[in-house]
Every structure is written in C-alpha cells, then in structure tokens.
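User: Okay, second chain of the day. Same drill as before: sequence in, structure tokens out.
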Amino acid sequence: MAPTERKPLITWENGLTAPLYFDRQVVRAEDLTLDRASHDRELARMRRYLHGWGVVAGLVPHIEADVLTVTGGYGVTPLGREVFFTGALSVAGIAARVTACCGPGGAGCALVDEAAIAAAAVSLPVLSWLIARPTLAEKDLRPGVAEGCAHPANHLRPSRSCGGIALDLICALPESHRVDASLPGHLCGAYDPLSPDMHSMRPMPPEMPEVDDFVVLGQVLVEDGVAVFRTADRRALLPTAVLQEWLMTSTCPSVYYVNRNPQEGGEHEVHRLGCPGFVPDEENRLYLGFFTRCEDAVRAAAAHFGEVDGCRNCLPDCHTR
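Assistant: Same drill. Structure tokens below.
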C-alpha cells in the first residue's frame, strides 16, 4: 500500500518566481530576465538576512584642500544590494556643496544649481551625511525585430544593464539608519529553552523603504567654510575573514559582567558572556562592556565593587580565590 501523502498545516508563497524550462519550449526575453531576477532576489535576501548590511571594506572618505575623495570598496544596503566600485571618486568644493544642500535655505541634495553652490557661504555649522547607493544604467543599444516589417535600425533597445554607484548627501539621518549601541537581548540575555520568549529567537528585522536603501559612509561637517569628515553613524559589517582572524589570535573582544551579589567571601564575581558555569540571573548582572583581556574587565568591576574576582570557569587566569 502506498503511503498516504501527508499535507502540511499551511503553505505560503514567499514571492519568489523562477521560470521552468523544457525541451522545444518557446523562450521569450522576459523568461530569461525573470531567471536572472529570481537569483538576484535570493542573493539580496541572503546578504540582508544572513550577513547584514553596512560597509564591509574600503569606501573610505577623506577631505583635503576642500576635495572629497572616496576610495573603492564594498558594502551592502539595507535591501541587500551591493555597493561596489574600484578606484576612487572625487568631488571638488565639498564645503560649498554641503552648505548649499543642507545649510539655511538649502536647495536639497538633488542640487544642480551651480550658482547656488558658488553663493553658499555661512558661518553656522552645517551637518550632512555622505551616503552611497547602487545604480543601474541601460547601455549598448541594439536593433531588434521591428513590427510591421519596419527597418530594424528604427527599433533600438538597450541590451546591457550596468551597475554603478552614486554618492549623495542627505541632511537628516533616517531613524532606520541610526546605530544602536546597546547589546541585543538575544546576545546577552538569559537563555531559557523552556521560555516562550527565549532570547535565542531573533525577530525578523523591519522592512526598509526603497528611499532608505543606501549605506552611510559618515558625516561631513562644515564650520567656518571648512569641511571635515567624521565616521559617526557609519555602520560596519565585519566580514567572516575578520571574525576568523579574531578567533584564531584569541583577541576577539568579549562581553564581561559582574555579579551584583557578593560571594560567601565578600567578593563580586566577574564573568565572560557565555560562561559554562553557574551564572547570576539577568537582574543581578552589571554589564561592564567589551574587553580583550580579563584583567581589564576585573579592573573595571573593581571600580564598582571593592572586592572582585574572576570566575574559575570562564576566567581561570583571573581567578585568585
């Protein structure tokens, strides 16, 4: 007897559509385009949800003699698209451009009025954010089969989609791009597999609007007519190679905390996040921050409690009692 096919509780489509091919099929241009688009969407999802988004490498701005230069590099936008280019891009007169864009009476960042740039001169500090976003340009016109027996040269269409990058200025940082400096609950919270809201279950990140699909390279501040670059609000996305180097050299910074309740001997015990031994409850933890050495964490704990000691399980090198 053939086994009965078991039906799932419920099914749902995830919005991804890919073409299916078979022998002697009539294949249209839209089928081939859909094939490529479906793979692009899958790659974008992987970058977005598995790896994250931000600046991975390069894309380093610097300002010299009022010329902004950004080196080549690689980044991932909030929607999972690549920001990639080689070489370097330079923009002259960056102070006037920032002032005309974001200063008093600024014309906005889609600025094309060179007269406004030349007239821009204020003494107040003007803050802007330098962003990079991916672009696509259609090129390489080719003739196609024209309708009504018309000449093919009368029907030219682009045959290439070329990726690129656009640098721009924004005058206000969207809330979705603000960097949260606090440690997430799934990283430093108490793990309880029986709890319905255990911290190991990460929620899906919020959806980003298309208008916010860019990476912030940093701030450009103009004061007294001089532009300076600051790395504030630049979101770093560490590549796997960097994380592996940290682990292999045992210099990866760890999160440390100290037990607010003293031990029987009166000392407060310092732990590394992920300690395999008995650890205090979340409400009894005082988080100390990131440190590469347990000695630095113990010293930081001593600033809060007079007598401290490292945990024998996770900090044996700093355990003295």
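Residues 250-318 form one domain.

User: Thanks, on to the next one.
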